[in-house]
Amino acid sequence: MLLLMGVLFSCKDPEAQTLSNEETSTVEPIKKHIVTPARVESERLGTLSYFDGYPSEETVDKLYDQLDFNRGIETFLNGIPAASMQALMEGFKGAGITKLEEFGIFENLMDSRSIFLTPNTESVYTINIFDLKDGPVVVESPPNTLGMINDMFFRYVADLGNAGPDKGQGGKYLVLPPDYEGEVPEGYFIVKPLTYQNIIFWRGFLQEGDPKPAVESIKANTNMYLLSQADNPPEPVFINWTGKRFNTVHANDFKFYEELNDVIQYEPSEAFEPQILGLFKSIGIEKGKPFNPDDRMRAILEDAVKVGNATARAISFSPRDEKVYMYPDSYWTIAFLGGYQFLSGNAREIDGRTLFHYIATAVTPAMEIKMVGVGSQYGALYKDSAGRYLDGSKSYKLNIPANPPVKDFWSVVVYDPQTRSMLETDNPYPSVNSELSDLEKNSDGSVDLYFGPAPPEGKEKNWIQTVEKKGWFIILRIYGPLEPWFDKTWKPGEMMLME
After folding, report:
1. Predicted pLDDT of residue 368
2. Which domain does 351 fall in, by range?
3. 466 with 343, same domain?
4. Domain termination residue (choose one: 240, 267, 299)
5. Other CB atoms within 10 A of residue 204 CB
6. What angle do CA 266, 269, 274 make, to 5 degrees?
């Protein structure tokens, strides 16, 4: 009888039940904050309607469109590292790399013809890609270089050369497939990435401004081949890429999702976090299944990639996180938010990862951690002292204070915000270099650099050309950074508009 009474009571009108509860004070009223009204007005989606908490058919359709749109944006932002790697792979293959023993090398340095994300004009870049599906790969690494291996999600795998276990003496590395369970021979530095495809970079160094010694050393000491070919390795082939036009930058339209899908289809699922694979799956990118969105989904993704690209550009060029700015009241920004792994504690700096990979390539601790007198450090500048984007139609001045904290040298390179590659001007090397450029110094030892479509009279030596009606930005590189760079007792000036 008590049970029946309880059932009958629970079926009463909710409003009457609330009154009864208030009178008896035996059961607390239902809280308003857990109840969804019949009509809700959203600033972004308009009216959302319900029947006793059940969303209407119109509301359901609206919300799923929004959910797919949101996930399309998040897939873009989180998929940039993989899509960027796929674009690099496609670009290198198109530029002539088809075999393990074939290397692209910039014998006369990289210039603005090649579309790369923020390269420098001071390194002898040597680049190759390799696929571990055919078995372990041997890498013969040259001496006195900075080398690195990154996987298909642009994660750090290993350093080679000066920052690697060979300590700049050169040596043989054995790169094992992610699923390799065979015997591992002795005599190699062992590396085991999470993905089958990987990219390998070396940076050789100029000697008194001459790239030739580094080129000769690299050609004499570099090779790559299957472990099964170790007894009779093929001869290496070097393709000079200086001045060659080819693209390595990922798409910013629907093709982006196709680039990402290529990576997911080829690589082992275990190489990626389940959460991120779930995100990609939610828009139709799933290993073993074709990526073929219907008309509705394609239209949503075509719109989402526009917003994703805009968001990546906002994060990169107008970051809102104060930790990205190098100094108080300054527009100089860092490259690595959360270090080379983009982590703060155990939390992913997702905007930091987007910021880096949208404008740059190649991840290694040697580019980020504090090593006084070793490696390199970076500062990027997109805006002038008043917070306005840099305009190629206008003229600017930048002061590099005296006693820059470098053991080796510093450089400034100008880039195009559209491609994030070197700005194409009359000079194919849009940069200055404290070691190679004949820069005029001020009486206090500082250097004023000038940027604009034409040089100020008498300042030609310190001038870098810009392009009218185009934006531009710079990266300051500090090679062999010294303590005043790290403790910030030395800082570069802000970009000053010359009225």
Report:
1. 87
2. 318-497
3. yes
4. 240
5. 26
6. 140
